[in-house]
Design a protein that fits this description.
Strand 1, helix 4 and strand 2 form a beta-alpha-beta unit. The protein contains ten helices and eight strands. The protein is of the alpha/beta class. About 30% of the residues are buried.
């Protein structure tokens, strides 16, 4: 085959791979949007994810600096955004999320409470809608594992952060010894746009390799049940005892529990 034909074939393959990747990313976003528009309107779910001790820790991790613009990516109910607006009254705080319904609710609460330095907006889950070097602090809680292209997200964070700006990532972590990513197999049954949990080393590599240095990290933990779906039980039965022990995974009368997973609360600083 002539060289020009080989090159053309390669270009076509690359374009096809990019299209497939984009379609896959959009499907994950669609799943997440559909799921979170539903569950974030469920007060029971909102109560389950509340953790005052953890919230206090996150606020402490970003203390000691003054900020002009704070961005909360995957803000959900504004669980972190509302306290940040109160803690930093001179900063403009913006929470972005793919779930239109909860964004509307949050903005209604902002108007009702008369909060002047807080707003919420919808984004597409792929492109962070902020300009170059316009943000001092980025926070994201329990959302990083939903990012369809984590490296691209980190690059975008670097781009919109001012020099010396910081990112706080709070997210459950894959155990380094979970080579088969068993925890991700359980999470994907929910079809809520879960991509993957990152180990501490994987997360550090993503940020340090894209213009950041690692700052403070505090490890906490959490547990959560999965509903009585047969799929969870099937995965449980296929999971080795060693893998179950990594997260203390149990089957309590048909309800599969992950009774211990580390949560990394990590600050990364733009170099």
């Amino acid at each position: 085959m002539p060289t020009y034909q080989v090159c053309a074939t390669i270009r076509v393959k690359i374009r096809c791979e990019r299209v497939r990747a984009m379609n896959t990313n959009m499907e994950y976003v669609r799943q997440a949007k559909e799921s979170f528009n539903r569950i974030l309107d469920n007060q029971k779910y909102v109560e389950i994810i509340k953790d005052d001790k953890h919230l206090s820790l996150l606020l402490d991790l970003v203390s000691g600096s003054e900020y002009r613009t704070i961005l909360d990516i995957g803000t959900g109910t504004g669980y972190l955004a509302f306290p940040l607006a109160e803690k930093f009254p001179n900063a403009c705080v913006c929470g972005i999320d793919i779930a239109e319904g909860i964004v509307e609710k949050n903005n209604a609460a902002v108007r009702e409470k008369g909060i002047s330095n807080l707003s919420f907006q919808v984004f597409d889950g792929l492109n962070i809608p902020f300009s170059v070097e316009s943000v001092d602090l980025i926070v994201t809680r329990y959302a990083f594992h939903h990012f369809p292209n984590a490296e691209n997200a980190v690059l975008q964070m670097n781009k919109i952060l001012q020099k010396g700006g910081a990112v706080l990532v709070s997210d459950p972590m894959r155990n380094e010894n979970d080579e088969n990513r068993v925890i991700d197999q359980f999470m994907k049954v929910k079809k809520d746009g879960h991509i993957r949990f990152y180990s501490s080393g994987e997360l550090e590599g993503l940020f340090v390799g894209n213009g950041f240095r690692k700052g403070t990290q505090v490890i906490t933990d959490m547990k959560f049940p999965f509903s009585r779906q047969e799929d969870y039980v099937n995965i449980y039965e296929q999971t080795t005892e060693r893998e179950k022990a990594l997260y203390n995974i149990t089957n309590d009368s048909g309800v599969v529990w992950v009774k211990h997973i580390d949560v990394g609360n990590t600050v990364f600083l733009k170099r």
